Amino acid sequence: MPDFRTLDDLDDIAGKRVLVRVDLNVPVKDGKVSDTTRIERVAPTIQELSSKGAKVILMAHFGRPKGKPDPAASLEPIAYAVESVLDHRVHFAKDCIGAPAAEAIAEMTNGDILLLENTRFHEGEEKNDPEFAKALAENGDIYVNDAFSAAHRAHASTEGLAHLLPAYAGRTMQAELEALEKGLGKPAKPVLAIVGGAKVSTKIDLLMNLVKKVDALVIGGGMANTFLAARGTEVGKSLCEHDLAKTAKQIMIEAAESGCALILPVDAVVAREFKAGAESETVEIESVPADAMILDVGAKSVEKVNEWLDRADTVVWNGPLGAFEIEPFDAATVAAAKHAAHRTAEGLLVSVAGGGDTVAALNHAGVAEEFSYVSTAGGAFLEWMEGKKLPGVEALSKTR
Ligand SMILES: Nc1ncnc2c1ncn2[C@@H]1O[C@H](COP(=O)(O)OP(=O)(O)OP(=O)(O)O)[C@@H](O)[C@H]1O
Ligand SMILES: O=C(O)[C@H](O)COP(=O)(O)O
Q: Which residues take part in binding substrate (predicted)?
């Protein structure tokens, strides 16, 4: 873990413009933030800086708007959620660089909090373009990165800026790294990983490394469909990235060679529509109807997951086993989460989970508090697990 400066190393910041990278990529349902965990996690950093009289300027991304403005990915509605968690006025600037940002910052008084519009509305963000990073740097005197969950991205606001301004780790960044090191630095074996969710293309590559590190890997959620299809199982209209079949096959081979048990669903809950109350049925995995989609793993699959949870000393979980936001497709995720929480409470399991929707799913199951540690990070958490260096963390290194 690199040696970085923290807020403890920052003194006399009254009146300073502190640019804080936070992760506000939060779950939203019907236009409302449905889980505020990520906001709650960055609140201490924001409150500490604001109470010391800094002008706190928040930078964040939301969704994947492909480098241009997209009203559906605006952070403006999220500003209200931040305001309500902080119980403090949060101003909003309609762009993260240029005149809109400069004008909003010029109006700030000490202790004020301002949220800048989605950094991904500019191509330069994801390209880590030095010119774009420079434009962002013009907004501040000091840079604080509190977005551990976005630290696996070498973007301008997560990496580039650390080279342009005095850089510090925020309280959440610090806490996440310390907790992960403590909980998973040398995990008790056998280690079971559970990976599900919908971000198949961004997570599939890292499974290749993960199977070399863990004793067993449960693949659920949308992720499982790509593996099922790759081995020739019909997945009907399910979320599935058929073009990743080759990678999925290689992962299955790598798992076998590394002695990692790979556990795929043996049954599934299928429906013709992706909506609450849609008619659903549980079928054997080889009998998914061509006009249906898999929206959860079935009860037999959950039994297998629970058996592996009984065997494991450590579980690392990212991504729900099904579309947990819609009943009854939350059943498998809830059942396995409760089982993991129960084993943890008995002192038989170290349970570490990460991911925006994963945290929401554990809250939905009512067991987030019972897990050993819940990280706000998904992809970053998995890459950390793989042993990869995270660019956002590396850039904070004091040696720079
Ligand atoms: N079988 C499925 N079909 C379609 N969507 C699914 C399925 N299983 C899970 N999902 C969806 O996956 C989404 C969560 O996946 P995601 O990969 O974003 O997890 P995450 O915990 O947020 O991780 P990260 O922090 O990396 O984003 C949920 O919205 C859920 O509905
Ligand atoms: O939700 C996340 O995991 C982080 O905010 C990173 O988002 P990204 O996968 O769109 O880069």
A: 23-25, 38, 61-64, 120, 153
Q: Tell me the pLDDT of the chain (400 aa) as tens digits.
A: 668 999 999 989 999 999 999 999 998 888 889 889 899 999 999 999 999 999 999 999 999 999 999 999 999 999 999 999 999 999 999 999 999 999 999 999 999 999 999 999 999 999 999 999 999 999 999 999 999 999 999 999 999 999 999 999 999 999 998 888 876 778 899 999 999 999 888 888 789 988 998 999 999 999 999 999 999 999 999 999 999 999 999 999 999 999 999 999 999 999 999 988 899 999 999 999 999 999 999 999 999 999 999 999 999 999 999 999 999 999 999 999 999 999 999 999 999 999 888 989 999 999 999 999 899 898 898 888 888 899 999 999 875 5
Are residues 122 and 96 in contact, defined by beta-carbon separation less than 8 angstroms?
A: yes
Strands (E), the chain: 17-21, 28-29, 32-33, 55-59, 91-93, 113-116, 142-145, 167-169, 191-195, 216-219, 261-263, 267-271, 280-284, 293-297, 314-318, 350-354, 373-375
The pocket around ligand 1, CB under 6 angstroms, is made up of 196-199, 221-222, 239, 294-295, 318-320, 322-323, 325, 355-358, 378-379
Q: Which of 16, 17, 21, 38 is catalytic?
A: 38
Beta carbon of 319 within 6 Å of any ligand 2 atom: no
Ligand 1: distance of its center to the CA of 198 in Å?
A: 4
